[in-house]
Amino acid sequence: MTHTDADIQELYQIGDLVRKVGVSLRTIRYYEEEGLLKPTAKTQGGLRLYSERDIFRLKYITTLRHLNMSIEEIKTILSQNAVSSDSRSDLIKRSYYAMILTKQKIDEEQNILNRLKENMAEALESIQSCLECQKPSCTGCSQKKFILA
User: Start and end of every HTH merR-type domain (predicted)?
Assistant: First the structure.
């Protein structure tokens, strides 16, 4: 693959991806082995080079993994945009819907986290009242349910 100087300036080495995305070198290589990510180019010496688009793809893969999606599920989502015979419009629409589905999954996870946070706040408030309690025993106390024993 031939690149101009301008192209090379816009490409990043694998270590740059580690810093920009916050994943390990091993993770990037694993995603490459699984076919989720591939470098835009390689130098004559075999050094992998990645574009801004590759960085976005890696961030998207990382987001999907944080949402507990399997590698196979991620492959399905990403492969929906890989059909080269489709029009630009179709590719954009599929990318858009994939992002909407991802946002919905994030919203679902956020709702779960919000409920967990509310439950924890209730438990902390109850245990705080236990710390201030002067009774010799917790027998009959409704706050007792929050004490881990």
Answer: 11-80
- DSSP notation for 3-58: --HHHHHT-EEHHHHHHHH---HHHHHHHHHTTS---SEE-TT--EEE-HHHHHHH
What string of pLDDT tens digits covers the 149 residues of the chain? Answer: 455 544 446 899 999 999 999 999 999 999 999 999 999 999 999 999 999 999 999 999 999 998 888 999 899 888 765 555 567 787 788 788 888 888 998 999 999 999 999 999 988 888 888 888 888 888 878 777 777 76
Same-domain status, 19 and 68: yes
- Residue 146: DSSP 8-state: G
Q: pTM for this structure?
A: 0.66
> Domain with 19 in it: what CATH number?
1.10.1660.10
Pair (107, 126) in one structural domain:
yes
